[in-house]
Amino acid sequence: MTQGMISAPQPEAVEVGLDILKAGGNVMDAAIAAALVQTVVDPQMCGIAGFGSMQIFMPEKGGHRFIDFHGRAPMAAKENMWENLIERECDDGFGFVLKGRVNEFGYQSMTSPMTLQAFSSALDKYGTIPLSELIQPAIEYCMKGFQVRPSVHAFWMQPAQAGRMERTAVVKQLPAARKIYLNESEELLRVGDTLKNCDMGKLYQRIANEGTEIFYHGDVASQIEADMQKNGGLLRKEDLAACEPVYIEPLVGSYRGFEVATNQLPGGGLMILQMLNILENFDLSMLGHNSAKFIAVVVEAMKYATINKDNFMGDPNFIDVPEDKLLSKEYATMIAEKIRSGEKANVERINTGAPESKDTTHLVVADRSGNLINLTHSLGSSSGVITDGLGFMYNNCMMVFDPREGKVGSLAPGKARFTAMCPTMILKDGVAMLALGAPGGTTITMGVLQAILNVVDFGMNAQESVGAPRFCATSNTIELTNRILRSVEKDLQVSGYATTRYASSYVTPLVHAIRIIEGKLDGGADPGGGGMVAFC
Length: 536
Hints:
By secondary structure, this protein is of the alpha+beta class. The protein has 20 helices and 20 strands. A hairpin with a 2-residue loop joins strand 9 and strand 10 (about 260). Helix 5 (about 135-145) packs antiparallel against helix 9 (about 200-210), helix 13 (about 270-280) crosses helix 15 (about 290-310) and helix 13 (about 270-280) packs across helix 17.
């Protein structure tokens, strides 16, 4: 038995990962088995036609690396093909609302499906159990079904917001989805109902028997292309054949004597390091956790990182990113002086609208030997498209590309979009002591940042760090959860800040973490997500 721990938003995935550890599998085996179950029991949050970022810390198998598997725009995409369709930019700067919602829903909204290939590659390099075995629990959940959890149903019931579609369209509008997500009375499944997806189960069994080649090069690829051609989609077999994950080194910085290792662009790790560099100039513990002064300082760091994200961060294969400057401690000190003087950053937006749908998932697996897998994967907010007979839903990651020409995030064939995904690890003298990440759209970096501060500056354990009240600023408005004191909000308003308060005590991102102190594990699952931590 491998002694270890797993934290994730889905109890089903946690339990399967734990079973793999108990059976002697390593952390990669457990992570892939759990992630495949996530694709079944959270089918709009993630899937084999999605994208993501995986942090691998396995000293005995080659050290510390990342697998980047961000989806890429189809080769048929053109930079200006949607420029005349712009209605508004999202408030958080992470996506655009277009006429006809062509970038959000339907056959033109998807980038290349990278997840299955990434899982297979990671397992080949770092696992000990074949994919054909690890996919079996996911197949069982497909064929026998799972109970619809409140978080799954809540996604379906999200209302239309400032031009965004009602999310029920994802599961109700197209015939292939209706067949899976509606009951015999043509009503949407309810919380507690059993959801079966036999088509996906059959596909997963074929993958178990024949390998991933059928998906990217074989008859499944042909089936996908035929569906795209019939319905005006952009994906083609050449896009599927080009799906290869990239193995890269971590992006490394420091914070208060600790090493911080996170992902490179087009992921959000650069934002994490920049915010930590700025905040290192302040004695945050003296300001008081979640005091008005503390929130104001952290919010300004969030805003400056957001401004730099909007202006400079994207796919480094297509744009020149001034990374050395953005990571510079001197640059961070300059920004800190502006904050200390009372200067407020201004986050510019065009025609503000709704925030990006915050739908992704995460898991962390660790063993007592210090090996860790830290994985975020997603479908964006999902396209609603299912090729009939295959069961899985495609991502809708084209939503976040900038439809305007000449911008950092402009469309281009083969280009990846920026995402805030940032699986991150804190180390001391090369030994991992904290691994964490989150789902939550562009708010991911803000939740991960606060959990790091909670551990390093305020001495919290993993569960305390992910469960503490949070706030967020990806625009000029501070978003507050309902557990932030109203007296603090009033002080922020007196200081000139616009605020908005959520009715919920917990909102996305849903941060999950595992802490390792002298070989002892403690884990945290965000209380707002219905997930869990388990160990053996």
